[in-house]
Amino acid sequence: xxxxxxxxxxxxxxxxxxxxxxxxxxxxxxxxxxxxxxxxxxxxxxxxxxxxxxxxxxxxxxxxxxxxxxxxxxxxxxxxxxxxxxxxxxxxxxxxxxxxxxxxxxxxxxxxxxxxxxxxxxxxxxxxxxxxxxxxxxxxxxxxxxxxxxxxxxxxxxxxxxxxxxxxxxxxxxxxxxxxxxxxxxxxxxxxxxxxxxxxxxxxxxxxxxxxxxxxxxxxxxxxxxxxxxxxxxxxxxxxxxxxxxxxxxxxxxxxxxxxxxxxxxxxxxxxxxxxxxxxxxxxxxxxxxxxxxxxxxxxxxxxxxxxxxxxxxxxxxxxxxxxxxxxxxxxxxxxxxxxxxxxxxxxxxxxxxxxxxxxxxxxxxxxxxxxxxxxxxxxxxxxxxxxxxxxxxxxx
Length: 397
Fold this sequence. Notes:
By secondary structure, this protein is α/β, with parallel strands linked by helices. It has 10 helices and 14 strands. It has helices at about 5-30, 75-85, 200-205, 220-225, 250-255, 280-295, 310-320, 340-355, 365-375, 380-390; strands spanning about 40, 45-50, 50-60, 95-100, 110-115, 120-130, 140-150, 165-170, 180-185, 235-245, 265-270, 300-305, 325-335, 360. Helix 7 (about 310-320) packs parallel to helix 8 (about 340-355) and helix 9 (about 365-375) runs antiparallel to helix 10. The longest helix has 27 residues, at about 5-30.
């Protein structure tokens, strides 16, 4: 066996150990009658090419409540610990049903599929689905989804109780969408300070969705992008992050609380396998997910938004190279300085040579002004974005 194979084999062994420990612990709790009621989470999905793409998870109810502005740090830390100490339910059968369009007003059975959770409690749905109808808001197009666990043993201490159910939704871009937006989350939408070491740990671990800070102007900018230059409200947003699925509820609550338009979240699995952790795994995940979105919506150009601290410029450069003519603009929030700024400037130069503008700015308003100039947003949206920008905590450099 070559020495270079040792790290790969060790990583695979750790991954299998993680799965075995999860299965053994769940089995032990079931036999002792100590398995709490389970929860089924249907993460926000999307509809493309007449198919529903959705991911979810079945796990023991973690007992996490929504945070408040007055929660002490220790309560936030305890909630974070429960998110990562979750007990996943492997091998559970989940029925996922998506609404279907009625024919001449008659009721129609929803399209449904049964899937099984993997060793870490995840399930993946890829099934034929009708395009979603418009919602109450102009241009809003979400497909209602219902997921329920069918296995009696996955119902916790009461096998005769009702099945665990979780509502979900999937976004389908409207036919008149002009472009799609892909955004990073940490240090792009949420102030995290990932380049700050202990500062980042304190921000992430000791705060909740209501005490975490958004970059002012981001919500207004993203609403303007969703509305587009003519106020149609049909341009879809997707959030692609290297953060783990364990934080899904926290991110969704944060985005909703701060008025950021909803969109599917594409997060990652963190396991004992070191190959799922670190910057290399994040880069691979983001490139793969963005490529899938580009393939799913071949008629739409894309706007990519990220920050300078976590390889987003390099990732987006690869996306532009791999998908020529598909990226309309790149916006990078400047959260770094020194040598890193020189590297990011080099990426901007290479993208400009490829005909793709990349704006690097410390505040949202600068990106918004460029978006208005190139016809991505309505210039009338700039005053609201500018008002929020004045409260931006990052210094303008």
